[in-house]
Amino acid sequence: MQSLGARRVYHQSDGAAAPTLPLYRSPPPVEVRLEDFEAFAVDRLRVLKAISDGLSRGKKPEEMEKLVGELWRAHMKHPKPSVNKDVISHFVLRLVYCRTEDLRKWFLSMETTLFRYRFKDQSVEAQRALMADFDLPYKAVNTAEFESVKDKLSQVARSIGQPLQTADTIFYKVPFEEVPELVASRKVYIHQGNAYVAMNQVVSLVVTQFRSFLSKALILTNRKWTSSIKEQEKDRLTPIVEVLSTSYLGPDYSQPRESAEISLKDIDHLAKSSFPLCMRHLYEKLKEDHHLKHGGRMQLGLFLKGVGLKLDDALAFWRAEFSQKVGAERFEKEYAYNIRHSYGREGKRTDYTPFSCQKVISSTPGVGDHHGCPFRLFSEENLRAALGRMGVGNRGMDDIIDKVRNRHYQVACTLTFEAVHGSTCDAGINHPNQYFIDSQKILLSKKQPTM
């Protein structure tokens, strides 16, 4: 692939083999195998999506700081120190997320958040080195000026519960509009249009610069992508780039787990107790209309396959419903083949995979369709009614609706799961089959006799 390169910005002052925090100014001049191109991007995407989920669930800054550290250690380490997985993965995802305004906005927000917490985790020496590398035009406040504003700085420190400033504290004087979050939260002293920013607050200043740089870089990358890279790499990189932003990164649910199996007689009960709203809605529409269009049949049928409905039972299930509407003969001619096909018994013998949340959310149902994500597609009135039928109380419902309004559909589904089951789901719901499996685990544990 094209060179990816970045330089090392600094090393920890103690000489330890700690990772560096690059500024991603230019791609590194290295050759990357196609497998690594995709695998590194997927690992970084796991980090960014977990950060997105943490933010949308309202995690506190200290919780986010811990989360980012854990995510980085889990997904971004490479056994070979010479392989700069950090920089390579960033530039791959920059290609992936430069392509539309919505993609750029999400990537910019998540990468900025990641940079923020990684910067805060560095030593003071490393932070100052990064500031120098940004070439920020700010000088530290000298002793005489510090003495002239010391009382004001101490008042600000007391008001936000910070230790009182001393002559050893390093301050930078910067235009107040460059640290908007510090100004908005009244964490800095402002005098004659300048904010006095303490060394332990410079993360806001550096993050603003990083965000501005990355925002411009994404626009430039988009121009290169549309003008040349997309066409030049149409047979190699382009197919990977175009699917990564909607990739499902969780477990494979193409086969039931641990020989799990459900029977026809169980489905009605399971639909009420353990189906996520998207599948419950499809099931209810099927029972009501005795028919579903292709998109609905695929979404519900593959879900049922993934939770353990065998092919013979699947044929019997669909036959019982559809025969009431179209007749047994037409069912065998027009529908049975597709069911066998989805189980890998016809055509190319492909074993189709149940739809992930991402795929369900991104689907665009037409008139008369019932598939897709209810959290995205339902009106608020219909969604409240559906959640009420699932047993969600008013308080939980308001929290769910709030997430829906902010387009956090998977978080809304996670909150629904927690409200229905009275149990937390820290990993979040990322797949309808995960919802079902986790639901069954909880319900089974409640049936177990206590010792």
Characterization of the model:
The protein has 451 residues and is mainly alpha-helical. 59% of the residues lie in helices and 3% in strands. It has helices at residues 34-56, 61-75, 85-97, 101-120, 124-133, 143-159, 180-184, 202-232, 238-244, 264-273, 277-289, 294-306, 311-326, 328-334, 336-342, 357-362, 374-377, 380-389, 394-405, 409-421, 432-447; strands at residues 171-175, 189-191, 194-198. The protein has a three-stranded antiparallel sheet with strand order 1-3-2, with helices on one face. A hairpin with a 2-residue loop joins β2 (189-191) and β3 (194-198). α1 (34-56) runs antiparallel to α2 (61-75), α1 (34-56) crosses α4 (101-120) and α19 (394-405) packs antiparallel against α20. The chain is elongated.
Could you write a compact summary of the structure shown?
The protein is mostly helical and 451 residues long. It contains 21 helices and 3 strands.
- How far apart are the first and last residues' alpha carbons, in Å? 60 Å
- Parts with pLDDT < 50 across at least 5 consecutive residues: 1-19
Proportion in β-strands:
under 5%
User: Measured on Cα atoms, how large is the radius of gyration?
Assistant: 27 Å
Please provide the count of β strands.
3
Helix/strand-derived category reads mainly alpha
Return the string of H and E elements: HHHHHHEHEEHHHHHHHHHHHHHH
Helix content: 55-70%
- Rounded mean pLDDT score: 87
Strand sequence of the main sheet, in spatial order? 1-3-2
Number of helices: 21
Shape: elongated
Q: Summarize the main sheet.
A: 3 strands, antiparallel
